[in-house]
Amino acid sequence: MQNLINTIDFSIDEVNILFKKAKQFLDKKRRDTLKNKMIITIFFENSTRTLSSFEIAAKRLGANIVSLDVPHSSSSKGETLFDTAANLNAMGPDAIIVRHKNSGVPHILSNHINCPIVNGGDGSHAHPTQALLDLFTLKKYFKNIQGVKIAIVGDIKNSRVANSNIELLTRYGLDVTLVAPPHFLPQTSLKTSHNIKDIIDDIQIIMSLRTQMERHKNQIYGSLKDYAKDFCITSELIGNRDILLLHPGPVHRNIDIDDKMLRDSRCKVLEQVKNGVVVRMAVLEKLIQG
User: Fold this and answer.
1) Cβ atoms within 10 A of the Cβ of 228, count?
2) What tens digit of pLDDT does each residue of 15-60 get?
3) pLDDT at position 196 over 70
4) What is the DSSP string of 98-144?
5) Quick one: DSSP state of residue 186?
6) Separate counts of helices (H) and strands (E) for the chain
7) Cβ atoms of residues 192 and 177 within 8 Å
8) Lesser CB count within 10 Å: N end or C end of the chain?
């Protein structure tokens, strides 16, 4: 039995095979490869894209999906996370997808569950399917991804998306630079910058991140507009450069990316959402079928 807790759980060969399968799923045809399989989602944090993407992915494969209504579940009555997991496990699911505000929860649960666990995002730790869909999106536009230069911009220190992408993209040989104010940067051996303008002519991809104010203990900027003055990806900044723009969502308009760039053909945000469904289909099929 295999889990997907971190991107490192899949080898490069496994990811390449996964992407071949995901390409086949782009035809949007329904399959029955997971017919009569039951998948449970447990999301202790709010989600629009990830939760609905997993649900659509499961249904396109013919699986039955049960979404735990966390606010109205027994966890709100004092039931521990482990007891919740034990009870769900006793129902015999074929996979469980979990999101939690605390880092490490999916890994801990995997030691108490008898089916594959998929990490839908845990704290600021990891979001493996987001990184997989991001790489899948990029590989469409670069025949050889190795050596391609990407800037990850924003609240990197608190971003599970950044962590997962850094692991996966560097393993594929991309040249990663982290761009953020000093207090948003983690300790790293990667190249860093405090000003996107300093490297804009040297990069081929920008991955903008949401400023996660809910994960900050103290207010760092007077307002998000103050942050945006230095780190918002604008049409003026990009100009006519051949740069692809990604964002995991939700986008803070005119804070992370301005309105004009969101409408620009170089912005691949909605393509990421589309690719998220097929990549998650491939992940579920791989983990459940073995």
Assistant:
1) 19
2) 999 999 999 999 999 999 999 999 999 998 888 899 999 999 999 9
3) yes
4) EEESSTTHHHHHHTT-SS-EEEEEETTTB-HHHHHHHHHHHHTT-S-
5) P
6) 10, 9
7) yes
8) C
Tell me which residue has tokens 């912005």: 267
Q: In what order do the strands lie in the sheet with 244-246?
A: 191-193, 175-179, 149-153, 205-208, 244-246
DSSP state, 178? E
From the number of C-beta atoms within 10 Å of its C-beta (0-12, 13-18, 19+), residue 276 rates as buried
Of 134, 205, 197, 200, nearest to 163 (Cα)? 134
Which single residue is written with the structure tokens 């997962």?
A: 164
For the record, the structure tokens of 98 come out as: 């979990």
Percentage, residues of the chain above pLDDT 90: 82
Adjacency order of strands within the sheet including 38-43: 64-68, 38-43, 95-100, 117-122
Is the separation of the CB atoms in 42 and 88 below 8 Å? yes
Asked whether the beta carbons of 196 and 231 are under 8 A apart, the reply is yes
- Under DSSP, the state recorded for 30 is -
Express each pLDDT in 99-121 by its tens digit: 999 999 999 999 989 999 999 99
Q: Which two tokens stand for residue 20?
A: 């071949």
Cα–Cα distance for residue pair 280/58, rounded to 1 Å: 8
Predicted confidence at residue 73, as pLDDT, reads 62
